[in-house]
Write a structure and sequence with these properties.
This protein has 6 helices and no strands. The protein is mainly α.
């Protein structure tokens, strides 16, 4: 019971931080962008977010129940780091409206997610099984992020280090 409460509180705090980092007008911001034709509609993004927090809850719950060890502590820390990074992405994508940096953000985030998955394989196979599908989804998310950046390079919605695209 204690593990479930702690996992729930962590997820609730992370969701609140994500929302605060994104700021108001998330739906409006997404609607203002050119997106690939294979992009998810807004409601589907909400479902994806819900599934993300369910899997985070399940992984946290399980990690809090496995015997304490250095690997377990590292896996917990990395899970918290991943959740914090999600909030940071929302800040860059929504508040700063920087599509270039938000796309670049996918690289360290992906490295963290893969490292966490590898660690979960060592700490708790069920947690790894729960988390694994997120990595598959993340291939889609990275492709989406790249396409959104590219499609909006000339709109002023995207920063590029060499300036706006011609």
């Amino acid at each position: 019971m204690k593990s479930a409460v702690i996992a729930f509180i962590i997820c609730a705090i992370a969701a609140a931080l994500e929302g605060a980092a994104a700021g108001p007008g998330v739906k409006k911001r997404l609607a203002s962008l050119r997106v690939p034709r294979w992009a998810l509609p807004f409601r589907a993004w909400v479902v994806v977010g819900g599934i993300y927090y369910l899997l985070c809850f399940a992984v946290l719950f399980r990690l809090l129940r496995v015997p304490s060890s250095q690997l377990q502590t590292t896996a917990l820390t990395m899970t918290l780091g991943l959740m914090a990074a999600n909030a940071a992405f929302n800040f860059v994508f929504f508040r700063r409206a920087n599509l270039y940096v938000s796309f670049l953000f996918f690289f360290p985030y992906s490295a963290l997610a893969v490292a966490l998955f590898v660690l979960l394989l060592q700490v708790d196979l069920i947690s790894a099984g729960i988390f694994g599908p997120y990595l598959v989804y993340f291939v889609y998310a990275t492709a989406w992020g790249y396409q959104v950046w590219q499609l909006n390079r000339d709109t002023g919605s995207a920063y590029h280090p060499s300036g706006p695209a011609a």
